[in-house]
Design goal:
This protein has three helices and eight strands; from the N terminus they run αααββββββββ. Helix 1 runs antiparallel to helix 2. 32% of the residues lie in helices and 34% in strands. A four-stranded mixed β-sheet has the order 2-1-4-6, with no helix packed on it. Strands 3-8-7-5 form a four-stranded mixed β-sheet, with no helix packed on it. The radius of gyration is 23 Å and the shape is globular. It has two domains: 44 residues, no CATH class; 80 residues, Immunoglobulin-like (Sandwich), CATH 2.60.40. With 130 residues, it is of the alpha/beta class. The chain binds copper (II) ion (CU). Copper (II) ion (CU) binds next to strand 8.
Length: 130
C-alpha cells in the first residue's frame, strides 16, 4: 500500500508501471496487506457520529447514551446557570459549562461511564462507549 502511494507521486510512467507490477506482486503474496484492506473497509463504513445531550431543568437528556469509539458527544447547557459533565472516575471532565455553552467529548476509550454534575450531585447520566 505504501509503495503504491509513493510511486504515484514521483516516478515516470515506465518506472511507475514496473513498480506497480512489483507492488501488485506484494499485494497478492502478503496476507498482511489483505488484513489491512479489511480494517480500512470497516473504518469507512463506520463514520464517526455526533450525539447531543441537553442539560436542562437539572437533567441530562438522554440520561443514558450509547455510542461507538470515535463518536463525538456534545453536551449543551440550556439552564440559566453552569453545570459540569464529569465522569465518576474523572475519565472526562468538562469543568464548568456556562449557560448556552456546550462541551464536546470524543469518546476514544470503550467502557461504561457514570457521570454527573459536580455542582449538583442529583444530576446523573451514563455514557456507554462500545
Ligand atoms: Cu449542574
Amino acid at each position: 500500500m505504501i509503495a503504491v502511494a509513493t510511486i504515484t507521486g514521483r516516478c515516470s510512467n515506465t518506472q511507475r508501471r514496473a513498480l506497480l507490477a512489483r507492488a501488485i506482486g506484494v499485494l497478492f503474496s502478503g496476507s498482511l496487506v489483505v488484513s489491512g484492506a479489511g480494517s480500512r473497509m470497516s473504518q469507512t463504513s463506520e463514520t464517526p457520529q455526533t450525539y447531543y445531550v441537553t442539560i436542562e431543568a437539572m437533567r441530562f437528556t438522554p440520561q443514558a447514551l450509547t455510542v461507538r469509539r470515535g463518536d463525538r458527544v456534545i453536551w449543551i447547557n440550556k439552564d440559566p446557570f453552569p453545570h459540569t459533565t464529569t465522569a465518576d472516575r474523572r475519565t472526562f471532565d468538562s469543568r464548568s459549562i456556562e449557560p448556552n455553552a456546550s462541551w464536546t467529548y470524543v469518546a476514544r476509550k470503550s467502557g461504561d461511564y457514570d457521570y454527573g454534575c459536580t455542582l449538583h450531585p442529583t444530576m446523573k447520566g451514563t455514557l456507554a462507549v462500545q
